[in-house]
Amino acid sequence: MTDTPRLPEGYRISTDPARIDAARVHRWLSTDAYWALGRSREKQDRAIEGSLNFGVYATLSGEQVAYARVVTDRATFAWLCDVYVDPSVRGKGVGTALVAAVREELRPYGVKRIVLATHDAHEVYARLGFRPLERPDQWMALVEE
């Protein structure tokens, strides 16, 4: 297992759903995240309500600068999704620390498999211990059009 990256000074992570800036998260995802372009606010709000949410906040202003959510049973399986870091703080290690915090939050539950899908950030996740599926031929998906 890799070391746990620390969040840069001046930022805090919270799993308090009341702190999530839902309007900001929706704007980020629906306009700038290739996997969620055009997602409705109503759908995003339902996703937030049904998930374990992580926000990164600037300590001085309280402004949310990053987001991730996890769909999980907190026992056997977790899907990490909607990881987004505001462009103004990219490259500072905020995203890496956020994903590490997700891993650490799930560890006490004994979750053995955390999956994610990415088009362009394989190296980022690999640094945190993620790797391609060993047997992708055993996985299937039902995709509703």
Short synopsis of the structure:
The protein is an alpha+beta fold and 145 residues long. The protein contains four helices and five strands; from the N terminus they run E-H-H-E-E-E-H-E-H.
The helix tally amounts to: 4
Q: Kindly report the spatial arrangement of strands forming the biggest sheet.
A: 1-2-3-4-5
Structural class: alpha+beta
Sheet of most strands? 5 strands, mixed
Describe the structure.
The chain has a five-stranded mixed β-sheet. The longest helix has 13 residues, at 94-106. The mean pLDDT is 95. Helix 1 packs across helix 2 (41-49). The protein is built from four helices and five strands; from the N terminus they run βααβββαβα. The chain starts with 10 loop residues before the first strand and ends in a 19-residue tail after the last helix. The radius of gyration is 15 Å and the shape is globular. The chain has helices spanning 22-32, 41-49, 94-106, 122-126; strands spanning 11-14, 52-58, 64-72, 77-85, 113-115. It is α+β, with helices and mostly antiparallel strands.
